[in-house]
Design brief:
The complex is a heterodimer of chains A (234) and B (289).
Chain A: H1 3-25, E1 32-39, H2 45-48, E2 50-52, E3 55-57, H3 63-74, E4 79-86, E5 90-92, H4 100-110, H5 120-130, E6 137-143, H6 155-165, E7 167-172, H7 192-203, E8 207-208, H8 216-232
Parallel strand pairs in A: 1-4, 1-6, 6-7, 7-8
Antiparallel strand pairs in A: 2-3, 4-5
Helix pairs in contact in A: 1-3, 1-8, 3-4, 5-6, 6-7
Chain B: H1 2-15, E1 33-40, E2 55-59, E3 62-64, E4 66-70, E5 76-83, H2 92-105, E6 111-117, E7 121-123, H3 131-140, H4 150-160, E8 167-173, H5 185-195, E9 198-204, H6 211-220, E10 224-227, H7 233-245, E11 248-252, E12 261-268, E13 274-276, E14 280-282
Parallel strand pairs in B: 5-6, 5-8, 8-9, 9-10
Antiparallel strand pairs in B: 1-11, 1-13, 2-3, 2-12, 4-11, 6-7, 12-14
Helix pairs in contact in B: 2-3, 2-7, 4-5, 5-6
Classes of the chains: A alpha/beta (234), B alpha/beta (289).
Chain lengths: 234, 289
């Protein structure tokens, strides 16, 4: 991995760790079904592919795989996960899984190739539908940079559908930049992350904006600290 | 015999009234070649009430008889491709406004599939007349950045619409400066000729429009315009849509279906008027659509 891709991986890993810890800490209520939605659009190719200098492969060790490994480590015993990518179509892993190995295999099963569009709102809409029949807690973890294209369903429809079904959508929107942002990108007008933050807020989910160039350890410490604090106060 | 059959087909077609949803069956067994022509008077205004006798068609330089003719406005199937490459960011606000004006200017039965090209070529999956949906798409799905795969977009775009019946127009808003293209201008021209799809090019003051893109639009019989920074976008797009609806549909029988590319020329007897129509076609038995 290049330093840059390592940073990307780290940031996503941190975001997912944050979210995974949230699930763990809220166990004791109903079991949870968690759907990871991974943006496979052209700008998010790094998420499901491993990087070596000058070469992109889809072998083991992609940021998505590392993220799911992290999620498996903090999953509560009664939580299960499926993984989906969305690009030209939505590809969903076949079964609900819990172990690290199974989740990594799930990522492998949904890797797609090509410079694809990003129908984020369709993915949320369809993802919510996948969770509609379960009696368990319904959770989506969405990792996307927010530039939605090629959607049949709009943003408002996706939000309405998630709320109607009672799906909590947690979102990580990786942010780039020359220096750590003083404010969230999502709070800037017309930023691609803005609607993602609104989606998380509207469904009761958490919103994270990992900055790609910050070291992994700092992000982990910060994010996990936030979650522990938030969950402890419930 | 073939000529008689063609006449019967054309007569039946005209008897059917060329209503909005009854598109001429020009691609049936006997090949009547359709030409969509725009006529502009010496003062630059659209001339939409000319008659068949005021036109002449030349195939490879030889005059051909016009066997079908219509000047009825009919709905248009449109592709709208907006260039969102880095070179267009300086006109970003204007470009977004142009997309909204384009949607607002559509006629009731027109259908539009909107898309953008930059980092990726992203078409909406929806070909629709529903302006509410189209407004949602242009509000939510325009993101700037990346290169300009212009010829790829035109080649793919006209191919995408090849299966649609009736008048098909790809409206491309761009500065026309191709970068990181996998297709060439000649690829785009070839596909355009094969599918008989028109390209209409729109540029914005501040980013301009290349002669190369203008020439492709002209080759297809479409127009091109560079909108001034002070131009009323609603009015400009209303005029573009009016022009597309008020094209003449002229049909002629080719002398030979030799599978070759033929030059086309359409003239009018109106003094000082200019005709815009496609400049070539493939003389095949059944167009490869």
């Amino acid at each position: 991995m290049t330093p840059r891709s390592r940073a990307w991986a780290g940031s996503v890993l941190a975001g997912v760790w944050l979210l995974g810890t949230a699930f763990q800490s809220t166990s004791g209520a109903r079991p949870a079904k968690i759907l990871f939605l991974l943006d496979a659009g052209a700008r998010m190719r790094w998420l499901t592919h491993s990087y070596v200098p000058g070469v992109v492969t889809s072998d083991a060790g992609s940021p998505a795989e590392e993220s799911l490994r992290a999620a498996a480590r903090v999953l509560s015993a009664d939580a299960v996960v499926r993984v989906a990518t969305f690009g030209e179509t939505m590809k969903v892993s076949p079964t609900w899984e819990h172990t690290s190995e199974a989740l990594v295999a799930a990522v492998d099963s949904v890797v797609v190739e090509g410079r694809l569009r990003s129908p984020i709102w369709d993915a949320v809409y369809q993802g919510a539908g996948l969770l509609e029949t379960t009696a368990d807690r319904r959770v989506i973890v969405l990792i996307s940079e927010g530039r939605a294209t090629g959607n049949v369903h709009g943003f408002d429809e996706a939000v309405d559908r998630a709320r109607q079904i009672g799906v909590v959508v947690h979102v990580a929107c990786p942010a780039e930049g020359e220096s750590p942002p003083k404010t969230l990108r999502a709070d800037r007008p017309n930023d691609p992350c803005a609607r993602l933050k609104r989606l998380a807020e509207a469904t009761g989910g958490r919103y994270a904006e990992p900055w790609v160039s910050r070291p992994l350890e700092q992000q982990l410490e910060k994010f996990v600290g936030e979650v522990v604090k938030a969950t402890s106060s419930r | 015999m073939a000529l008689r059959s063609a006449w019967l087909m054309v007569a039946a077609m005209l008897a059917a009234g060329l209503s909005a949803r009854q598109q001429p069956a020009f691609h049936a067994t006997t090949r009547v070649v359709p030409i969509y022509a725009t006529v502009v008077g010496p003062d630059g205004h659209l001339l939409s009430q000319l008659t068949r006798n005021q036109f002449a068609v030349f195939d490879n330089g030889q005059p051909r008889e016009i066997v079908s003719f219509s000047n009825e406005p009919i709905p248009v199937t449109l592709g709208g491709m907006w260039d969102v490459s880095l070179s267009m960011t300086k006109v970003e606000v204007r470009e977004r406004a142009a997309a909204r004006a384009f949607v607002d200017a559509l006629w009731a039965d027109d259908r539009l599939r909107f898309g953008t090209f930059g980092d990726i070529v992203a078409w909406s999956p929806l070909l629709t007349s529903d302006k509410k949906t189209l407004r949602r798409i242009v509000d939510e799905e325009i993101w700037f950045g990346g290169a300009t795969p212009l010829w790829t977009v035109i080649e793919e775009g006209v191919h995408r619409f090849a299966g649609e019946s009736g008048r098909r127009v790809l409206v491309v808003l761009s500065d026309g400066n191709s970068r990181n293209d996998t297709q060439s201008k000649s690829d785009a021209l070839r596909e355009m000729q094969r599918t008989d799809c028109m390209v209409y090019a729109v540029g914005l003051a501040g980013s301009g429009i290349s002669g190369s893109l203008e020439s492709v639009a002209e080759e297809s019989g479409g127009g091109h315009v560079e909108l001034a920074s002070t131009a009323d976008l609603d009015r400009e797009f209303a005029e573009i849509l009016s022009e597309l609806h008020h094209q003449y549909l002229i049909g002629f029988l080719p002398a030979a279906l030799d599978g070759e590319s033929h030059t086309l020329l359409v003239r009018t007897t109106v003094a000082g008027a200019k005709v815009r129509a496609r400049k070539s076609y493939i003389a095949a038995e059944v167009p490869d659509r």
